[in-house]
Design a protein that fits this description.
This protein has 694 residues and is an alpha+beta fold. It contains 29 helices and nine strands. A hairpin with a 2-residue loop joins strand 7 and strand 8.
């Protein structure tokens, strides 16, 4: 009786602690109320709940069924998932030393707990018992898929391994969780460690007024005079495009491209070494020759041979054109500099490319920026979602947010039904990682027959507003917004029974299709009519500028493709090693990279720069042996958008078919989803045609 009473009071205590913790409130996330202590409490509660739920499954005396084993496992970690979704999103978008410490503390614990579950022999025996009877259970498509996925996850996590190999796998994956987290934190610290403040006229020559205005604003924010440039993308890319001072361009380029490769406490060389070797060891334990062999089994590509087939086919088509583009720009730079021996260096490309584009098409970034004010572009993107999918976005100032710059929207469908909550976080800051991404604070799912809407977020690093101008986007930032918004549509429109299948929970080389297809609308009149309006005069973008924009659509497209292939080959090189890599006998991460990227390197390599030590996608994100997926999805999106073009870009029938693809998430194999939408297998021909290569 005493034991039962103690258990009862402990349960009551747990319920009350959860009730008082803002992470577990029933409504929207109360970010401003959450303290580091709340995160710690929430993790402990979540881990405890998960342990109890797993124990209830394994200790059950009932025969294993779909409900008491597979579904019970699906819902075993709801509290833990909630705190993870909040904390790890914050360490990307609005971090602090306290949050970084919490992430470092709980990442290995979470991995260990996951391993305990996936390597639990009693649990796997129950899962396998249900799986073995799968054809007798009369499951619907989603139930059958979650059963298959659960069983395969156990097998791929080592459920069939020996006791010794299970222990080793546990050790490897726990170490990897800490290593990848530390890698990302180091890159952010390296990014924040550099800035240069300029005051001399010769140092800022060539920089447009809007660039100088933003740089002046950054200087004021840190309490200094002059113009401050740092490694945030709006600052970095603008300086590289427009600054006449070549020495300063080189300085900024070297700072940006040597992150994690400078020595010191934030150096990532040793971490890269450990990550690739531990991934290889994991693959070997699982009976695979390389990590890529292991990883690619659950992708559309299926094998490293198919990945290389794609990369090599694109290389054969684009590389000759890329070389011509480099030769053309070199000749142009030699004419401008009156130097017949001038060699384009990496810090010269953006500068001379911008000038040549202006000469060839009478078009530059400065001409377009006044027509792409962020607020109007954002409203145009929302309007596009309305025309395609019937969605409406309404600003909701009453919902708490994690930073003053964040905007929160209620998303409803054509009938006024609540679809999702959408968070938009646009501007760079020291507490935010670089780049742009979509994520979710809560995934969509069906609960008791009712759809639980998701909380979806996009995070970018766009040009900041200044005292004199609103945020004006470059055209590449417009396409970035469309790209990330495409990911968010995948999450917002999700309509699946289980959260683990909703939205972007699909194969990695399929996840970029919904995002990349949206980029196509940036060149369409139906979109430009809504967004491209001068922020001062209210004048629509002139037809002549639209024509120039379309004429320049494929400007240096081959160079851009080869750059992506460079990343893809580098990723595959690291993850197709079949024996441990050692930094010995003069071998370094930098030298390995040089060899791996030799055939796709079209400009001289700068000593000291290194992609691998800052390549978050593959070393701290989810794209290891998967970066090729961007090009894979580009092939899909070119083929898919050709149907939109054939039927009319806002054709409701075509949009409806694509909406069905988005709603399905990971409930169906992506190849099946794509064939249902398109009616045919994709080839590279549509991409080659769109890019003017064929």
């Amino acid at each position: 009786m005493k034991v039962k009473l103690l258990s009862f009071f402990l349960t009551i205590s747990t319920i009350m602690t959860a009730k008082n913790n803002p992470i577990f409130n029933d409504g929207f996330i109360r970010f401003s109320d959450i303290t580091p202590q709340h995160y710690e409490e929430a993790f402990e509660l979540g881990l405890k709940e998960q342990d109890e739920n797993i124990a209830a499954i394994t200790n059950s005396t009932e025969a294993p069924t779909f409900e008491n084993t597979i579904l019970a496992l699906e819902y075993a970690d709801e509290k833990l998932e909630r705190v993870c979704n909040i904390l790890f999103n914050m360490t990307e978008a609005e971090t602090s030393d306290a949050l970084d410490s919490l992430a470092a503390k709980y990442s290995p614990i979470l991995t260990q707990k996951s391993n305990e579950i996936m390597l639990n022999e009693v649990l796997f025996k129950r899962v396998k018992a249900v799986y073995d009877k799968r054809d007798e259970l009369n499951l619907d498509t989603e139930d059958r898929k979650i059963l298959d996925d659960t069983y395969v996850s156990f097998v791929r996590s080592g459920a069939n391994l020996s006791k010794e190999d299970k222990a080793r796998m546990d050790s490897i994956t726990t170490a990897l969780s800490s290593l990848t987290l530390q890698y990302g934190q180091n890159v952010l610290k390296e990014t924040n460690s550099f800035s240069m403040t300029l005051t001399e006229p010769q140092d800022i020559a060539g920089l447009p007024d809007y660039v100088l205005s933003a740089a002046s604003q950054r200087a004021k924010e840190v309490g200094t005079e002059g113009y401050l440039f740092n490694l945030s993308m709006p600052s970095y890319s603008a300086f590289m495009k427009f600054a006449d001072n070549r020495a300063l361009r080189e300085k900024l380029y070297m700072a940006y491209n040597s992150k994690g490769n400078r020595g010191g406490e934030n150096d990532n060389n040793a971490i890269v070494h450990d990550i690739v070797n531990k991934r290889l060891e994991l693959a070997k334990i699982m009976g695979r020759q390389t990590f890529a062999d292991y990883k690619l089994e659950r992708t559309m590509a299926e094998s490293k041979e198919n990945v290389y087939k794609l990369l090599d086919e694109l290389y054969a088509n684009y590389m000759p054109v890329a070389r011509k583009e480099v030769d053309e720009l070199t000749d142009y730079a030699r004419r401008l500099t009156s130097d017949s021996t001038f060699i384009i260096q990496p810090w010269d490309w953006a500068y001379y490319s911008e000038k040549l584009q202006e000469d060839k098409y009478d078009l530059n970034e400065g001409m377009l920026k006044p027509y792409f004010e962020l607020g109007r572009v954002k409203r145009g993107v929302f309007a596009l979602a309305g025309k395609l999918y019937g969605l409406k976005f309404t600003l909701n100032d009453k919902i708490d947010k994690y930073h003053k710059d964040v905007e929160v929207y209620d998303v409803t469908d054509a009938d006024g039904n609540y679809v999702a909550t959408f968070y938009a976080d646009f501007f760079p800051r020291a507490s935010k990682q670089g780049g742009a991404w979509m994520t979710e604070f809560r995934g969509e799912k069906i609960e008791n027959g009712k759809r639980i809407p998701p909380y979806i977020s996009i995070v970018t690093n766009f040009s900041i507003p200044t005292d004199s101008t609103p945020s004006l986007l470059s055209f590449s930032e417009v396409t970035t917004l469309l790209h990330e918004f495409g990911h968010s549509l995948h999450g917002m429109l999700a309509n699946t029974k289980y959260a683990s299948h909703s939205g972007t929970n699909v194969y990695r080389d399929f996840v970029e299709l919904p995002s990349q297809i949206m980029e196509n609308f940036a060149y369409e009149k139906c979109f430009l009519d809504d967004v491209a309006i001068h922020y001062q005069t209210g004048e629509k973008i002139p037809e002549v500028l639209i024509r120039k924009l379309k004429e320049s659509e494929n400007y240096h497209v081959a160079y851009a493709c080869v750059r992506q292939l460079n990343f893809g080959y580098l990723d595959m090189a690291w993850h197709t090693i079949d024996k441990p890599w050692e930094a010995a006998d003069g071998e370094t991460v930098e030298k390995f990279e040089r060899r791996a990227c030799e055939k796709t390197t079209v400009l001289p390599a700068a000593e000291g720069t290194c992609t691998s030590t800052q390549f978050g996608h593959i070393f701290s994100g989810g794209y290891a042996a998967g970066y090729y997926g961007y090009k894979w999805a580009e092939v899909l999106d070119a083929d898919a958008f050709s149907l939109f073009k054939e039927t009319g870009v806002l054709n409701p029938e075509t949009a409806g078919k694509f909406k069905a693809l988005l709603q399905a998430g990971g409930t169906v194999h992506p190849k099946t989803l794509y064939l249902k939408f398109r009616g045919q297998e994709p080839t590279v021909d549509a991409l080659l045609k769109r890019n003017g290569i064929k």
